[in-house]
């Protein structure tokens, strides 16, 4: 890989727009694959605005600097002009629904893929779809909220940890180091980790505790800490998840409960991604977050009743055609 890094981002939701906008500003070549033609047209005409919750001047990227392409053209256009990295910022549901067909033609291609999903299940699917690819998982606590197809609010700087999936050295891996440097130059705080599973399992519990409760009660993350009852419910979900991990032989640190409380404090004014989905009547990721814990519990023969309940509560909010 020589010259400037070229990155393809699939998914122009909150995180996709934030990454694309900040990377374009730092001079990285970005091609943004959008699910709707209307969003592509709007980005090319109006440009992209990133506003900041702390009142700093918004960043405005003119449409002429944005290469937004409809995802339906991916299979035809991407293989002809692949970039150095493919970054997936679509939600788990979309990933499971559209990626098998979309990525089919790349089965034998040796590409670098970075996945920024919450939950568990996507990496195994991608490994099956792209056996020749180098897969990297990332977990991030960046706070981003999409206000419109061309506007995103950076609701709080977080930390993004990246690790090579399937084991192996990430910290001294040149390709990963170069990506991390690119993201750091764009203003993100990035850590490379050789402990990718630990990193994903830790985030899974954080999401499994914060996301469903904030979605059910429709409150920002910080308000989870406002009453004893809410904290007790959080604790119950946490203890059940910890027991599932113990039964499955998955190690977790004693500090995890304190980490969950700290995430609530650090992101106190933010809406969790699940609450944002519920408020926009979008499908949530509960099946891949709490649902993964329930599936692990079932395999290990232990109970995960609280996680099963929150799944029903969140899924029951949507009226599906029978
Ligand atoms: O999904 C989310 O919203 C985030 O991962 C987190 C860390 C819970 C903060 O809102």
TrEMBL record:
Q: Which GO terms describe its molecular function?
A: 2-dehydropantoate 2-reductase activity; NADP binding
Instruction: Write the Enzyme Commission number(s) for this entry.
Output: 1.1.1.169
Q: Which keywords accompany this UniProt record?
A: NADP, Oxidoreductase, Pantothenate biosynthesis
* Domain (Ketopantoate reductase N-terminal) ranges: 8-165
**Class of the enzyme per the UniProt entry, highest EC level:** oxidoreductase
Presence of the UniProt keyword Nucleus in the record:
no
> What's a single GO BP term from this record?
pantothenate biosynthetic process
Q: Which reaction does it catalyse?
A: (R)-pantoate + NADP(+) = 2-dehydropantoate + NADPH + H(+)
Q: Which domain of life is it from?
A: Bacteria
Please give the pathway this protein is involved in: Cofactor biosynthesis; (R)-pantothenate biosynthesis; (R)-pantoate from 3-methyl-2-oxobutanoate: step 2/2
The record's annotation in InterPro entries points to: 6-PGluconate_DH-like_C_sf, 6PGD_dom2, ApbA, Ketopantoate_reductase, KPA_reductase, KPR_N, NAD(P)-bd_dom_sf
Function, as annotated, reads: Catalyzes the NADPH-dependent reduction of ketopantoate into pantoic acid.
Xref: PANTHER family = 2-DEHYDROPANTOATE 2-REDUCTASE, 2-DEHYDROPANTOATE 2-REDUCTASE-RELATED
Instruction: Tell me what this protein is called.
Output: 2-dehydropantoate 2-reductase
Source organism (scientific name): Paenibacillus rhizophilus
């Amino acid at each position: 890989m020589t010259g400037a890094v070229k990155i393809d981002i699939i998914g122009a939701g909150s995180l996709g727009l934030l990454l694309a906008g900040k990377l374009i500003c730092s001079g990285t070549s970005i091609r943004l694959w959008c699910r709707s033609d209307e969003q592509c047209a709007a980005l090319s005409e109006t440009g992209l605005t990133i506003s900041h919750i702390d009142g700093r001047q918004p960043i405005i990227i003119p449409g002429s600097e944005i290469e937004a392409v409809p995802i339906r053209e991916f299979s035809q256009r991407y293989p002809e002009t692949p970039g150095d990295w493919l970054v997936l910022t679509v939600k788990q549901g979309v990933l499971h629904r559209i990626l098998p067909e979309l990525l089919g033609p790349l089965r034998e291609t040796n590409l670098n893929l970075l996945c920024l999903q919450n939950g568990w299940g996507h990496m195994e699917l991608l490994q099956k779809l792209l056996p020749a690819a180098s897969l990297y998982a990332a977990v991030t606590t960046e706070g981003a909220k999409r206000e419109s197809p061309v506007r995103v609010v950076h609701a709080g700087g977080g930390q993004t940890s990246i690790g090579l999936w399937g084991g192996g050295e990430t910290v001294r891996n040149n390709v990963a180091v170069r990506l991390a440097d690119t993201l750091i130059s764009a203003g993100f705080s990035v850590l490379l980790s050789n402990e990718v599973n630990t990193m994903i399992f830790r985030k899974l519990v954080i999401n499994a505790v914060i996301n469903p409760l904030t979605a059910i009660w429709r409150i920002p993350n910080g308000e989870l800490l406002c009453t004893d009852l809410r904290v007790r419910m959080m604790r119950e979900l946490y203890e059940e998840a910890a027991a599932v991990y113990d039964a499955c032989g998955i190690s977790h640190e004693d500090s995890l409960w304190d980490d969950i409380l700290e995430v609530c404090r650090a992101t106190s004014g933010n809406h969790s991604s699940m609450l944002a989905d519920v408020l926009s009547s979008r499908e949530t990721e509960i099946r891949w977050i709490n649902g993964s814990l329930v599936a692990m519990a079932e395999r290990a023969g232990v109970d995960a009743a609280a996680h099963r309940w929150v799944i029903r509560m969140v899924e029951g909010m949507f009226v599906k055609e029978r």
